[in-house]
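Board notes (copied after class):
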Amino acid sequence: MRWNKFFGIDLDRWPAIARYMERIGSRAAVTSAIAAETAHA
């Protein structure tokens, strides 16, 4: 769900989703997957 930044969607309107993204984004598996995705981009 990182596409919101690409489309300029501010998640401040949806605080629950913003908190969810912070929680999920801090997980080691997620940071590892994002790093792998950006390495191939």
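Comment from the instructor: Residues 3-39 form one domain. The chain has one domain: 3-39.
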